[in-house]
Design goal:
This protein is an alpha+beta fold. The protein is 45% helix and 21% strand. The chain contains 6 helices and 8 strands; from the N terminus they run ββαββαααββααββ. The chain is elongated.
């Protein structure tokens, strides 16, 4: 696991446990959906010796380990990924974002000797052969920007029209 994908929970007396960030986010989200109070959630992991350890996410642990380790950006990223997955569309173009007729129109836009659908399909095929995952913001966004004639300007934080 990369360090950026982990969260270290300080358990007191100099002890700590390491969790996969996605596991911890999924577990906390499920427990909250089941009505469990935030400070009553208990999570499990293996320690360095291979033994199973559990820890209750007390107010102290939230304050000292998790608020910093699981930033709001992590929760936002998790919520975004979950929300996009709920569209039920392989390119994340389903409801609630787009109606089926809109999806058809978007996928049929012609770009660079093909359509948005053909470019997205080629991308998916390429990623499958390299066992890489598709990232909406890094992989899909350039195709949609090209098709729609817009570009995200990081410096200004605004979308710019490339041509009229």
């Amino acid at each position: 696991m990369d360090e950026v994908d982990t969260v270290v929970i300080e358990t007191g007396s100099g002890g700590s446990l390491v969790f996969a960030q996605e596991y911890l986010l999924d577990w906390v989200h499920e427990e909250l959906n089941n009505g469990k109070p935030l400070t009553d959630i208990i999570v499990s992991t293996y320690d360095a010796d291979g033994g199973m350890k559990t820890v209750q996410l007390t107010a102290e642990i939230w304050q000292h380990s998790l608020i910093n380790g699981l930033s709001s950006q992590s929760f936002d990223k998790y919520k975004s990924r979950r929300r996009l997955g709920e569209t039920g569309h392989e390119y994340y173009l389903g409801q609630p974002y787009f109606e089926p007729t809109q999806v058809g129109a978007i996928l049929s836009i012609e770009i660079m000797g093909g359509t948005v659908a053909s470019k997205l399909g080629a991308l998916a095929q390429k990623k499958a052969t390299t066992y890489d995952t598709i990232c909406g913001s890094h992989d899909h966004a350039p195709i949609f920007e090209l098709a729609l004639g817009v570009s995200w300007n990081s410096a200004s934080g605004k979308c710019e029209v490339l041509h009229q």
